[in-house]
Amino acid sequence: MLDRPASRPAAGAAPLLDIRNLRIEATSYPPGEPPRTVTIVDDVSLTLEQGKVLGLIGESGAGKSTIGLSPLGYGRGGARIVGGEVRLNGRDILEEGPKGFRRLRGREVTYVAQSAAAAFNPAHKLMDQVVEATIRHGVMGRADAEKRAVALFRKLSLPDPERIGERFPHQVSGGQLQRVMTAMALCPKPDLIVFDEPTTALDVTTQIDVLAAIKEAIRDTGVAALYITHDLAVVAQVADRIMVLRHGKLVEEGDTGQVIHRPHEAYTQALVAAHDLQHQEKPPQAEPLLTVKNVTAAYGGGAVKVLKNVSVALCAGQTLAVVGESGSGKSTLARAITGLLPPQSGTVRFAGRELPARLVDRKKDDLRELQMIYQMADVAMNPRQTVGTIIGRPLEFYFGLRGAERERRVTELLEKIELNRGFANRYPAELSGGQKQRVAIARALAAKPKLIICDEVTSALDPLVANGILKLLLGLQAEEQVAYLFITHDLATVRGIADAIAVMLRGEVVRYGPKSQVLSPPFDAYTDLLLRSVPEMEQGWLEQAIAGRRMQSAGN
Amino acid sequence: MLSVKGIPAGAALGLVMTALFLFAAVFAPVIAPYGMGEIVGGVWEPASENFWLGTDNLGRDLLSRMIYGARTTILIAALATALSFGLGSVLGFLAAVVGGWLDTGLSRFVDLLMAIPTLIFGLVVLSVLPSTVLTLILVMGILDATRVYRLARAVAADINVMDFVEAAKLRGEGSGWIIFREILPNALSPLVSELGLRFIYAVLFLSALSFLGLGVQPPEADWGGMVKENKEGIVFGIPAALIPAAAISVLAISVNLVADWILNRTSSLKGGRGHA
Questions:
Q1: ipTM at complex level
Q2: Less crowded by CB within 10 Å, the N or C end of chain B?
Q3: Residue of A nearest to B6 (CA)
Q4: How far apart are CA A283 and CA A415, in angstroms?
Q5: Do A340 and B172 touch (CB under 8 A)?
Q6: Can you give the pTM of this predicted structure?
């Protein structure tokens, strides 16, 4: 059933995919300026043999997705292929035009998108969508196609493979949907699959299952793949070769082992080292700054309990990391502490006093001393306010600073976040992702808080940028003696910054204590699963991790 | 700010026409060749050197009355629109930000007002109250505010759940700051385009009321009333009634062209740098 693809011209002689001197441009329309042409991909060449996997690695804007889509003859968002050749099975697909693309897409080359939830049509059953391309291209009839789909579902370890096709996209979990999409891509027996960050949007514990399923399916069907991601540790598990890209140009290409262990270029070395943050754990103090005691909170007037009897404490100038997958209640804990979601029972003590449950009952000083930084800096700042207003408003609001004095303090804060004073006149849309998050940090600092709640502040950022933000946060902590409640799903980050850790699962704290204690055995089953799910930059890690775990991840 | 270059032809035409109407409205006494109520010739005289558009049913100069009519019509429509926007958007934002009982109460009251056809409601109210310009503006403004309220509330409800509004609430900001500094700047583009449309509806509504005899009272000139005064002439092939009617539609189209263009230029939330 899962036979190898019927490859067309003499295989072996020419590579399956041969991209030569690819050049891709797009036109951008900067506000207030004439439109200009931007080169997204500049003179990139690559070859891919049959049955091999090539990983494309780089930060956002590196052009990796644009290159990945070129074998489909597709330019996203108005990108145009202006130079070079894309040779697939020995012919240049760019010469064939729209008709050729139509024969090619969904037949010879297929695509797995980052967000399967957004890529599936919510109005059709999964099976109809999985077999559609196969039937339309006349690869096989409906009955055979559905049989093949079921076999693929089984191969990808989906539960109830016979009947999962009967469901609608919203009736399966995110990790399962991603695997159904992989089945869809494999169904027409393509020669090449383009995986565009297929596991980036998933929880770590789910990612590992999807990764294993994808890897096995690629091996067993002998299909070639381009695997696009920004996570070097992930790509190390599936790719034979890795290409590192930056600003649309090739930085380095080599065997997976060589790239991750012996990178030649400075940029690749920085990528490999991005996780190496060192943090000396501080001992707990007698009188904690924040004490959350037996807090229970619920949405919908008590119907859905999302926090059950949660107790944690955080000392002044230290970092408490709250770890868990999505839905574990870690963000709700932040909402309960800030008063956005008044708890049903339990108390929050802060700086020696008990905080009123509801936000409206809190005094200005309670609000000032407890600041928050959000995951998406984009939406956390008013797009119609300048950076100067965004940072200056807390100064005016809490300290009554005005005019030159306020301006001076804004400049000071900008310096603290390593931006120059010119940024005060910019709007958020004119900043990069990392700069936006820095401005959000400055806004929090402006209030001179004792505690900052950081809600997944680095998860939307590229690894190197995220690393810079974490270093900045640690530096500011040493300088200002501010405590962080750091909410994250990324255990690698936690190791680098935390003093204490609380592991949450379905609204409960399952493990809590100083970092050294939480991260040393014996582990409970869930912490063990979390720890084993963090990808390590080691070939063969995936197989060991799958073999060694004691508990199934929730996404299964 | 707006650059003069790169204005599409349609928008440019709309801008020029709107400017012409506004000019006529502001400088009516200066540019009108005759007085508004002055009888200067025979009944329904055709266009001539003395009377560029001819005369009306009483022998008054039609061009002069058109110019004065522009003044009355545009003034009342503009004030009614301003009132409806002030009232509708502030209440709409407040309902979205405060929520709860205030929201429910206001929204149901607006539903109640909207359930009654506007024209009939207007007719009933105006037949009871004295037909002064102030009553007209109040009635039109309040009735139109219901539409603006619904739009403003919907737009503000979307913005109110964004993280930057939550951040402002966590900072302890009051409703005033949240409404006017956080939400209003981001809700402006849909509201501005709606402003153009609402202004046109106000012109049409006023014209309809005047045509029915409950709007602007004679001898004041306004376009709807002028259509009414001259409608008998159509039977005899006299175009006097069509000229104010044409003016109404040209104004409507011109303002719409401008409003569409403004909407296109400002619909992107991405750039705070006001490029429109």
A1: 0.76
A2: N
A3: A34
A4: 31
A5: no
A6: 0.78
